Amino acid sequence: MARDFEYVFVYGTLRRSFQNHRLLSHSPCLGGAGTRERYALYVGEYPFVVRDQPVSPIIGEVYKVDPATLMVLDALEEHPQIYRREKVPVVLDDGREIEAWLYFYPRPGGRLIESGDYAGNA
Asked: Of 15, 54, 57, 84, which has the most beta carbons under 10 Å away?
């Protein structure tokens, strides 16, 4: 049986206190989290994560979203034309590990944020 929700890991402008967070205003937040695997976080015009550069875990938040909200996020991220949404393991701040969607960008560019935390380096 299909779920009526998905978990989405956000690391940039969709996080609390950033300009696109309003798109998640009706989605429950599970809390802070980090990716289990290491990736590279860059900031150019927007923040983005590159899958094939193992720099650091990416820091963000996880939201429980309904299908309509996921479609809105896909439109924002221009999935799959620009960003590509993939499921990855993330570890919540309370220690639980879940699979969540993360939007990846295909190539590096801009300024590398070695800490993996956009909120601390925006």
From this structure: 15
What average pLDDT does the structure give for the chain?
Answer: 95
E-state strands within 19-121? 29-35, 40-43, 47-50, 59-65, 84-92, 97-105, 111-112
Beta strands in 53-121, from DSSP E residues, in sequence order: 59-65, 84-92, 97-105, 111-112
Q: Which residue in 6, 37, 45, 77 is the catalytic one?
A: 77
Per-residue model confidence as pLDDT tens digits over 58-110 = 999 999 999 999 999 999 999 999 999 999 999 999 999 999 999 999 999 99
**Residue 77 among the catalytic residues:** yes
Q: What is the pTM of this model?
A: 0.95
Pairing verdict, β 6-10 and 59-65? antiparallel
> Looking at the domain covering 6-112, what would its CATH class be?
alpha beta
Q: Which residue matches tokens 């590096």?
A: 108
